[in-house]
């Protein structure tokens, strides 16, 4: 793989079980580049290490006054110099290629994982850690992958030189053969401590990055509440912790570097001292002494790569661990792809909340908690942040569909869509059904003024489609970015389109036109809009109120406003005090309306008393007559009893 061939058609399936396994997987997948770098590295290092032998031969030729050997030695030195130049040039080229291609592979893997997980990624891994992995960590991982081949070439060169010295001059070669392994292994006891300090530094740097990322994301809110200084002090403390950790780590690496300088110097002194004694005794020639001395001195160059590979591994191991952690994340429910690829049709239903979205209708969802609305939107798109029952599309669980089929069926536009840099034509060049043209989508999203602004901001673009959009659309206002993102979503023309607050940053007049355009363009297609705007709600075929994680009311906007207090509180944005004030006003109006009724009731009660009095007056003679009748009855009974006794 060459740099010009990037990106990879398929970056592969990484071994993300641990950081070392991930590094080993990367190395195996770049075996061709590693072997190429190894070959050029051997040419370079062996050419460098051959120079001392050439120098020794030249000195001995001068001592022996042999012009022929001196000329041959000069020719050998020219060949060594050519090997050094060619080997170094192509080694650097191969090494940089390995570095960049390894980092690009990791970035592609991370991008693919982010696209699979969606916004659930930042809920499971801190946003600052994701940024650190995708920027600084990929460079350190690429550094280690690239350094392996150079280290291997350096190690083989050291072995070849030691063997050559043993053959060339055994008396001095033994000293070098014993001393070089000591030099190479002397720093091993210090590596665990250096690695721990490097890990601690990376941890502190990651926390500082997370804090900085979170602070930047919430800067507008911090300015609103006056919390800038508080978070600035926190970042200062985090930054100082990173500095102290970096200093402690640098001290350990400085000690390792000092040892790498000191021990070769001691070995060189020992070789010179022993060689001088051998030369005095006549056991070696001056040329042999110069050769061995030069060889030991030149070996300090390949030995430096032992320190580099230790540093590269120490810094890349925590980076690889963090990258493996991100790459090991999976969707909450595993789609094994057992179901045949295809896009089901029918109603969209969420068993967790009871939300039913009829097919071909415009459904608005009102939720008092914006975070809960965002999570529900993700669920409808098949990207749940937590475990739970799958959303059903036409009775088919989205989690049982392949990811491509699920995304073809349901498209979710979150409340903060991202615009990539490039021309407007490139921005709108997205997978689409072809039924919706860019002009129709832009008109429905009311992007006329956005196109004018893009043309005015681009000096060489007469056609608005060729106008340039800056990174994340920073040259546009929030409402303009929102409308362009809506147009991009409309062009895709998915079977189910889920929009989370698509008009929160536009004015009411534009919002009303967008609502009408959205309804017309999506006629016959299933559309779900999470909003609390009355303008959008009034044009929806169906409105559902979600409260405490479940659907509590379904109807149309005007009906729910009058019959559902919780819906009215969200849509009209009434506070608790305003609700209580409204209740008091209603009670006062009721009291005012009830006062005449109370007067009528009192009048009725007075009439009732008067009637009772009149009734009592009219009843008195009747009572007297009743008493008289009772007296006559008693008299008759007495007379009858007397007659019976007489009889």
| Largest sheet: spatial strand order | 6-9-10-3-11-12
Q: How many helical stretches?
A: 22
The helix-and-strand class reads alpha/beta
User: How far apart are the termini?
Assistant: 149 Å
Report the radius of gyration as a whole number of Å. Answer: 44 Å
What is the helix fraction of residues, given as a range? 55-70%
Task: Present the secondary structure layout.
Blueprint: H1 19-29, H2 31-63, H3 67-117, H4 120-124, H5 127-168, H6 170-185, H7 191-217, H8 219-225, H9 228-280, H10 286-298, H11 300-327, E1 348-350, E2 355-357, E3 362-367, H12 370-380, E4 392-393, E5 396-397, H13 403-409, E6 410-413, E7 422-423, H14 424-427, H15 438-444, H16 448-457, E8 468-469, H17 478-492, E9 496-500, H18 508-521, E10 526-530, H19 534-537, E11 542-547, E12 550-555, H20 557-563, H21 565-571, H22 576-646
Parallel strand pairs: 3-10, 3-11, 6-9, 9-10
Antiparallel strand pairs: 1-2, 1-4, 4-5, 7-8, 11-12
What does it look like?
The termini are far apart. The chain has a six-stranded mixed sheet with strand order 6-9-10-3-11-12, with helices on both faces. Strands 2-1-4-5 form a four-stranded antiparallel sheet, with no helix packed on it. Helix 2 runs parallel beside helix 5. It is α/β, with parallel strands linked by helices and 647 residues long. The protein contains 22 helices and twelve strands. It has helices at residues 19-29, 31-63, 67-117, 120-124, 127-168, 170-185, 191-217, 219-225, 228-280, 286-298, 300-327, 370-380, 403-409, 424-427, 438-444, 448-457, 478-492, 508-521, 534-537, 557-563, 565-571, 576-646; strands at residues 348-350, 355-357, 362-367, 392-393, 396-397, 410-413, 422-423, 468-469, 496-500, 526-530, 542-547, 550-555. 68% of the residues lie in helices and 7% in strands. Strand 11 and strand 12 (550-555) form a beta hairpin. Its main location: membrane. It is found in: Cell membrane. One of its GO terms (molecular function) is ATP binding.
């Amino acid at each position: 793989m060459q740099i010009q061939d990037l990106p990879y058609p398929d970056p592969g399936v990484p071994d993300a079980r641990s950081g070392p396994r991930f590094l080993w997987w990367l190395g195996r997948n770049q075996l061709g580049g590693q072997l190429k770098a190894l070959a050029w590295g051997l040419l370079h290092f062996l050419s460098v290490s051959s120079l001392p032998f050439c120098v020794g031969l030249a000195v001995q030729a001068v001592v022996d006054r042999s012009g022929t050997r001196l000329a041959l030695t000069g020719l050998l030195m020219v060949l060594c110099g050519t090997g050094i130049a060619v080997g170094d040039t192509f080694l650097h080229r191969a090494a940089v290629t390995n570095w960049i291609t390894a980092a690009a592979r990791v970035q592609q893997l991370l991008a693919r994982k982010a696209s699979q997980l969606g916004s659930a990624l930042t809920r499971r891994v801190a946003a600052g850690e994701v940024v650190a992995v995708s920027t600084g960590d990929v460079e350190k991982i690429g550094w280690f992958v690239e350094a392996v081949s150079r280290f291997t070439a350096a190690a083989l060169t050291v072995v070849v030189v030691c063997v050559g010295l043993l053959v060339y001059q055994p008396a001095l070669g033994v000293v070098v053969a014993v001393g070089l392994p000591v030099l190479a292994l002397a720093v091993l006891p210090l590596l665990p401590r250096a690695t721990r300090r490097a890990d601690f530094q990376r941890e502190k740097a990651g926390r500082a990055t997370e804090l900085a990322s979170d602070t930047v994301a919430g800067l507008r809110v911090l300015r609103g509440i006056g919390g800038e200084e508080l978070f600035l002090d926190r970042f200062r403390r985090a930054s100082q912790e990173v500095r102290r950790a970096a200093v402690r780590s640098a001290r350990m690496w400085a000690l390792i570097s000092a040892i790498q300088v000191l021990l070769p110097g001691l070995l060189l002194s020992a070789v010179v001292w022993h060689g001088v004694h051998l030369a005095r005794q006549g056991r070696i020639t001056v040329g042999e002494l110069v050769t061995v001395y030069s060889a030991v001195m030149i070996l300090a160059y390949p030995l430096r790569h032992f320190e580099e590979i230790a540093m590269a591994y120490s810094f890349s191991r925590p980076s690889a661990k963090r990258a493996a952690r991100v790459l090991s994340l999976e969707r909450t429910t595993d789609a094994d792809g057992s179901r045949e690829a295809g896009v089901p049709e029918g109603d969209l239903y969420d068993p967790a909340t009871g939300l039913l979205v009829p097919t071909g209708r415009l459904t608005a969802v009102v939720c008092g908690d914006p975070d809960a609305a965002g999570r529900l939107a993700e669920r409808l798109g098949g990207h749940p942040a937590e475990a739970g029952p799958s959303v059903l599309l036409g009775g088919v669980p989205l989690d049982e569909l392949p990811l491509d089929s699920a995304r073809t069926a349901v498209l979710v536009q979150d409340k903060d869509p991202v615009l990539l840099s490039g021309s407007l034509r490139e921005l709108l060049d997205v997978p689409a059904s072809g039924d919706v043209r860019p002009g129709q989508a832009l008109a429905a999203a009311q992007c006329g003024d956005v196109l004018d602004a893009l043309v005015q901001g681009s000096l060489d673009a007469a056609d608005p489609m060729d106008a340039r959009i800056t990174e994340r659309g920073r040259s546009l206002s929030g409402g303009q970015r929102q409308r362009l993102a809506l147009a991009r979503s409309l062009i895709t023309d998915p079977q189910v389109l889920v929009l989370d607050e698509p008009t929160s940053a536009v004015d009411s007049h534009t919002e009303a036109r967008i609502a009408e355009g959205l309804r017309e363009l999506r006629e016959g297609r299933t559309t779900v809009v999470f909003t609390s705007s009355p303008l959008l709600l009034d044009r929806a075929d169906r409105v559902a109120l979600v409260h405490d994680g479940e659907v509590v009311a379904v109807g149309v906007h005007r009906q729910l406003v009058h019959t559902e207090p919780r819906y009215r509180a969200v849509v009209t944005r009434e506070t608790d005090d305003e609700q209580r004030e409204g209740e008091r006003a209603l009670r006062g109006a009721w009291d005012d309306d009830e006062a005449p009724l109370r007067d009528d009731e009192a009048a009725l009660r007075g009439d009732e008393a008067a009637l009772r009095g009149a009734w009592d007056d009219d009843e008195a003679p009747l009572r007297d007559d009743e008493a008289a009748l009772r007296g006559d009855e008693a008299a008759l009974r007495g007379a009858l009893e007397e007659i019976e006794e007489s009889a």
